[in-house]
From TrEMBL:
InterPro entries: NTF2-like_dom_sf (IPR032710), SnoaL-like (IPR037401). Coiled coil: none annotated. It comes from the Bacteria. It comes from Catenulispora acidiphila (strain DSM 44928 / JCM 14897 / NBRC 102108 / NRRL B-24433 / ID139908). Pfam families: SnoaL_2. The lineage of its organism: Bacteria, Bacillati, Actinomycetota, Actinomycetes, Catenulisporales. Residues 6-104 form the SnoaL-like domain. This is SnoaL-like domain-containing protein.
């Protein structure tokens, strides 16, 4: 199990200390919807605020993962509950290590449900 897998597993278990143990003190975590958390103490603050507001990671399944030197990558399916609303989406994470800790982590998410293209143009569904 690599550090990115450990990070995701700790989120799935709602284990704040477990997440923080995977990060460098001066880490940068970039969420797929825009927020940037600079430093382990800011990540801790964010996690407590999110869980205290009723946020829940319901599942976070890694569907593929790769490593190349100090870079870890994973594609995943994420399910959560936030503000009483359940959501599931696909995405990917790229993480850079500094020694055995994550120094930089950036997440990307799909903006609409995936579908097989059939050769005919259709307007994409709006994520809003």
């Amino acid at each position: 199990m690599n550090q990115l897998h450990t990070y995701i597993d700790a989120w799935r278990r709602h284990d704040v200390a477990g997440v923080l143990a995977t990060l460098t003190e001066d880490c940068v975590v970039v969420e797929c919807y825009g927020p940037v958390y600079r430093g382990r103490s800011r990540v801790e603050q964010w996690m407590h605020a999110w869980f205290d507001a009723g946020g829940s990671v319901d599942d976070w399944k890694i569907v593929s993962q790769e490593a190349a030197g100090d870079v870890l990558m994973a594609e995943w399916v994420f399910s959560c509950t936030s503000h009483g609303e359940a959501a599931t989406f696909e995405g990917a994470t790229i993480a850079r290590l500094d020694g055995d800790k994550i120094a930089y982590l950036r997440e990307y998410a799909t903006s609409a449900p995936l579908y097989d293209w059939t050769g005919t143009w259709r307007e994409p569904e709006s994520p809003l």
